[in-house]
Structures are given as structure tokens and as C-alpha cells.
Amino acid sequence: MGFRVQYKGTMCVVCGKEIAVGTMGDGKKGAYRHECCKPVELPADAIHLNGGSGYGCPGWERGQVVWNTGGKLGSTRERSRQEIDQLFAEWRKEHPEPSYEAMVNHDAPKPPRFDGKGGCDSPEYLEYRRQFAAYGEEAKRWREQLGAEYEERRQRLAAAVEEDRRLVREALAAIQAQFPEDDGPAYLFVLQASKQYHREDGMSFGVGDESGHTYSAACRPATDEEAAPLRAKIAEAQQAKHKAMDLKVLEERFIKEGEYVARGEDGQAHILNGEQVNIGSGQSIYGGGRWFMIEAAGERAAPAPEEIEAVRAEVDRRKHALKTASERLIAWVQENLPATAPIVVANKGRWPYDGHLYSDGDLAALGEKRPTYEALLKEEQRLSYTTSPDSYHEPQRRLMALEQALALSRYPRSIWHVLNNGSDGDDWSANNVRTGGAGAIGRRLPYSPELDAQVRELAPFGPKQRHY
Ligand SMILES: [Zn+2]
Predict the structure, then answer these.
(1) Domain-embedded: residue 416
(2) How far is the CA of 431 from the centre of ligand 1 (A)?
(3) I want to staple 283 with a disulfide (CB 3.0 to 4.6 A). Which of 262, 289, 438, 454 is the partner?
(4) Do 321 and 386 share a domain, yes or no?
(5) Residue 94 C-alpha to ligand 1 middle, in angstroms?
(6) Does 452 share its domain with 328?
(7) CA of 50 to the centre of ligand 1 (A)
(8) Which residues surround ligand 1, an ion (CB under 5 A)?
(9) DSSP character for 413?
């Protein structure tokens, strides 16, 4: 007999889904179902699952296959609870619990009993009162006669209770050991699922939170065919976990054994070329993330020593030329500018030209013969490294690049592990690799085809960042 569902949140006990308002339902209070969801006849050995949303349980659906981790559910032990209780009860009969009555109070006078008949004025009650008073006296005498023995008996009882607890633990363990607890079916098939909402008093219903759902399901063992997709998924997840662990070991190897090549002398971070292989999701927009860089063959050719020497000689020559030129300038200023020439207020940033050529002391030495602005500007332009053919800055940069290339060329080809280190809170001073951001810390190992293959195989199993 069906009926039209009137309230939101009416759940079907067969499929575990909501029965929409206005559609047809069936069943009794507490066990409503979709009219089309025929009640399932559950086998007597159905395996029951229970969970609460507050414990992170997402619930179950009819037809779902569930992984029975550790084979606990439906194990022999779980199915044999009654038998286990029975065996324990039998053991208990032979190992009675130590009692106050048996160990302390066994020879004490017993109090009289009154069966309540006749009420408070009856002769029976008066007789009972008389006997109780006599019992009180007798009990007092018994206790006095017992003396220290009473306390000893109590201590014997306490020790026996302690010993009994130990024996119970052992006996239960021995009984349970006869019933395996891990032989339940590895995969369960949900025959029926239900979901119930609890408001506020959820705790007492196993929700695990103030309010939320409790879920239950009745299952049978899944067939191999039913379990196959889930089994494959689990195997894949386990494999990914192993690969992630292997990746961690590989990254640790780069960090421990990899070579950290310092930046060039002028602070130039290395520019890495090659194939970038992201670790997980790779570089993040916040300056984090990690990746490998596999250099192409022949990427790191060593510069010829003669080339380095030639550039070094050129730097020295130009430094010397500049020194000579500036000495000439000082001499020229001293000779050619009369004491009456207009005094120039020098722009600190432009004059002295090179920071070290003219100190404040030099200026003082010039005395009244300070150069005119125009005269200085002309000479400055001649000497300035941006325009003068005498400038040593350009060859010096080339020399540093060559020295950096020489350091890098110790491995003709390498694989870099790059740890992005450009977030706001990071210490950027260790960054030796250039990125689009504040830089990264790179360590490298010599290239080998094995390392290349390992890097490509494991890198995808690195952490995945969520992009919101
Ligand atoms: Zn249903």
C-alpha cells in the first residue's frame, strides 16, 4: 500500500536515498522505502556496517562494493560472538569470581529476614525487630573476635580479585584465539543501505558530532567480478603510495648528494635550460613547488682556459687604463682650473665617478681648484663604463659568466632538483637558480639514463596543489 510522501528528508531504507516529496513511498514508520524499491530479503549471515557522519563516514549505497579492510567484518570471530560468550560462561563456572560473601563474611552471623506480611504493628514485625537487635549484638561480637583477621581476609579478597582479572584476560584471549578475526570477505556488496538524520543529540546515536547522519548497511560478500573494479582502484592507490615514497627517497638523494653550485660572483643565479619535469603539480604561483630540470646533452660545455685568460687580461688592462685616466683627470684639474673657477656642487651619485677614484680627501686636496661641472661631465663621459671603450665592467661581466660556466661544466650534463624558494617568508639568500619569481634552490647530479628514467617515472607522484 503506497502513500504520497509529504515531508522532506524521508529516507528509503532499501537504497539509502531520499524519497522526494510528492512521490510514492511505501513501508512503515521508521522503515519507509521508495515504492519501487522492493524490500530486500537479507540473508541470516548478512554483514552489517554502521557509521556516523561525525566520524567521517560518507555512508553507503545499495549495490556499492566496499573494501573490508583487514577482513574484520564478517570474520569468524565476529560471527561467533554467542559461541565465545558461551565458552566464557563455561570457563566462569569453573573459575568463580572471588566474593566478599565467600572470602570475608562466610562465618558471620546472618541478619534476620522480614517478609513484610502483617505490616508495622504485627507481632511478626515486632519479632523481626527483636531478632535484628540480637543480630546486631552478635555481629559486633563476631567482628571483635575476628580482630586483625578481618583486615587480612579483606586483603586476600583484593588480591584474589586482581588475580581473577588477569585470569579473565588470559581466558578470553585463549578463547578468542580459536576464532580468526581477519578472515571476513575482502569485499562486501551492499544489499541495503539506510541513512538517518539526528539533530543536536547526535552523540548518543553514534553520529560522532552535535548533529548529522548515522548510516547503516547490510552486505553479503562481493563476487570476484563485482569486486574487480574496486580491487584495481585499491591496487593503483597502493602503487601510487609506493611511488610517492620512492620519489621522496630520490629527492632526498638530490638534497644530500647533489651539488649546490653557488651563484656567479656578481650574484647571477644560474639559468637552467633543458626539459622541465614537474614534481606533482610543479611550480606554484606563490613561489613554492618543485621540479626537475633535465639538461640536454652538450648543454654544459666548458669554456676554453685560453678564453678565460684572455678576458681576465682584458679586464686587468682596462682597470689599469681607467686608473691612469683618472690620475690624468686629477692632474688636469689641478693644472687647468684657476682658484677662481666656479665651484661645482657635485651630484653624489655621479661624482666621484667610480666610488673609489676620488675620496673626500681627494676633493679636499683639490682645494679651491674645483672643476667646473661641464669639464667634469665631459671627462666623466669619457671614462664612464657605459660609454667608454676603456670601461672594464663589460669584460668583467663576461669573465664572471665564463667562471660560472666553468663551475657548471664540471658535469657536462646534469639533472637538477629545483626547490622553488620564492615565497614571501622564504630566505632568498640561498637561491642559486633563476625562476620567473624570486628564485629557487637547485642541486644537481650528473646525468645518467637511469636517473633520467627514474625522474620521469616518479615525478608525477609528487604533491598535487589545489588551485582555487
Ligand atoms: Zn529506494
Answers:
(1) yes
(2) 60
(3) 289
(4) yes
(5) 52
(6) no
(7) 18
(8) 12, 14-15, 34, 37
(9) S
Domain hosting 17: range is 1-39
Which of 395, 422, 452 is a domain's end point?
A: 395
Collapsing DSSP states into helix, strand and coil, what is residue 184? coil
CA of 185 to the centre of ligand 1 (A): 26
The pLDDT assigned to 155 comes to: 95
Residues 386 and 414 in one domain: no
This prediction has a pTM of: 0.55
Q: Which of 143, 177, 211 is the last residue of a domain?
A: 177
H-state helical runs in 95-223 = 100-103, 123-146, 148-177
- According to the per-residue pLDDT averaged within each range, which of 9-18, 230-239, 311-320 is highest? 230-239
Enclosing H/E stretch for 32: strand 31-34
Q: How far is the CA of 230 from the centre of ligand 1 (A)?
A: 23
- Paired strand residues for 39: none
Distance 17 CA to ligand 1 centre (A): 6
Q: How far is the CA of 33 from the centre of ligand 1 (A)?
A: 5
Domain count, the chain: 4
More confident: 441 or 401? 441
Q: Calculate how far, in angstroms, residue 48's C-alpha sits from the geometric centre of ligand 1.
A: 18
218: which strand partners?
Answer: 48, 192
Q: Please report the beta strands in 310-363, taking only residues with DSSP state E, as ranges in sequence order.
A: none
Same domain for 291 and 344, yes or no, is: no
**Residue 41 alpha carbon to ligand 1 centre in Å:** 14
> What is the mean predicted confidence (pLDDT) over 210-229?
91
279 exposure class (CB count in 10 Å sphere: 0-12, 13-18, 19+): buried
**pLDDT for res 390:** 61
Q: Supply angle C-alpha 285, 290, 294, rounded to 5.
A: 120
**In angstroms, what is the span from residue 12 Cα to ligand 1's centroid?**
5
- Ligand 1 centre and the CA of 75: distance in Å? 29
324 and 288 both lie in a single domain:
no
Distance 67 CA to ligand 1 centre (A): 23
Centroid of ligand 1 to alpha carbon of 231 (angstroms): 27
175 contacts: CB under 8 Å, gap ≥ 6: 84, 87, 88, 91
Residue 200, CA distances (Å) to 18, 195, 206, 321, 392 in order: 21, 16, 12, 88, 79
Distance of CA 215 from the midpoint of ligand 1 (Å): 15
Do the domain assignments include residue 207? Answer: no
If we measure between CA atoms, which residue out of 185, 219, 184 comes closest to residue 51?
219
